[in-house]
Amino acid sequence: MKITSTLCILLATARLAVAQTDFSKVEIKTTHVAGNIYMLEGSGGNIGVSVGPDGVLIVDDQFLPLAPKIEAALQKLDKGAPKFLLNTHWHGDHTGGNPHFGRKASIIAHTNVRKRLADKPDTAKEALPVVTFDDSLSVHFNGEEIRVIHLPPGHTDGDSVIYFTKSGVVHTGDQFVNARFPFIDLGSGGDVAGYVKNVETLLQKIPAGTKIIPGHGAIATREDLEKFQQMLMETMAIVRNGIAEKKSLAQIKAAGLPEKYKDWGAGFINASRWLEIAYNNLDKK
Ligand SMILES: [Zn+2]
């Protein structure tokens, strides 16, 4: 019950955030990442873009009201409409533009992304992935192998990371957010311990020098991902110790987190919420 009510509050807050965002004021910023990969920022999850002789492929598409602006930003890179759209996971700040871009692009995503989007009563047919996979697949596009690899339950139960193998770029979706506390969606099959484990896996697989497009936050390096892992380990230890000492969630929240993580709570999840997510998931085990 506790988890359900926390999630309801979180989802209600997310919806409120969407309702409060004045999309007419959002501008799309384009940044070259490496090779033929770009990143678009506006409101919602970071968008990855591959541009080259084969055309355009995008990773995630933010919110539907931003679709015309995203399209305009893409047009500056290449005149054609995206041929492929990869969804890192099903959350609305990463798939909101699907009804728009899905009219021309083939949407590719993990099986559970299609399942969860299809379960939402208001999802348009064009918004659903047409190619689904369970473990991994590759798109051979713009002179490189783009590997889409599903991770075990972490942020949700349908997350994938995308490796642009020749450009040396990885889009992690929300399995990594740069210098922020993560949201772990327990109601969508997410798992705190699994999330931490997935970060470990990413660190093993991502070579030094790789540019990382995180789900949210600035373009990152492997060092930033290491800092993120450090934060996860340290804050989880605080929660675990608190539980072992029979402390209540309120007591753990009151004690708070080390000063160095003050700025990490500036995003969607503040320190108190992060402690709550970790506590509720660990307390069950
Ligand atoms: Zn997400």
What does this protein look like?
The chain is an alpha/beta fold and 285 residues long. It has one domain: 4-Layer Sandwich (Metallo-beta-lactamase, Chain A), CATH 3.60.15. The protein contains 9 helices and 12 strands. The strands form 2 sheets. Strands 1-2-3-4-5-6-7 form a 7-stranded mixed β-sheet. The protein has a 5-stranded mixed β-sheet with strand order 8-9-10-11-12, with no helix packed on it. Helix 6 packs antiparallel against helix 7 and helix 7 packs across helix 9. The chain is globular, with a radius of gyration of 18 Å. The chain starts with a helix and ends with a helix. Bound molecules: zinc ion (ZN). Zinc ion is lined by residues 89, 91, 94, 155, 174.
Write the layout of secondary structure elements.
Layout: H1 2-20, E1 29-34, E2 37-41, E3 47-52, E4 55-59, H2 67-77, E5 84-86, H3 92-95, H4 98-101, E6 106-110, H5 111-119, E7 131-133, E8 136-141, E9 144-150, E10 160-164, E11 169-173, H6 192-205, E12 211-214, H7 222-244, H8 249-255, H9 271-283
Parallel strand pairs: 4-5, 5-6, 6-7, 11-12
Antiparallel strand pairs: 1-2, 2-3, 3-4, 8-9, 9-10, 10-11
Helix pairs in contact: 6-7, 7-9
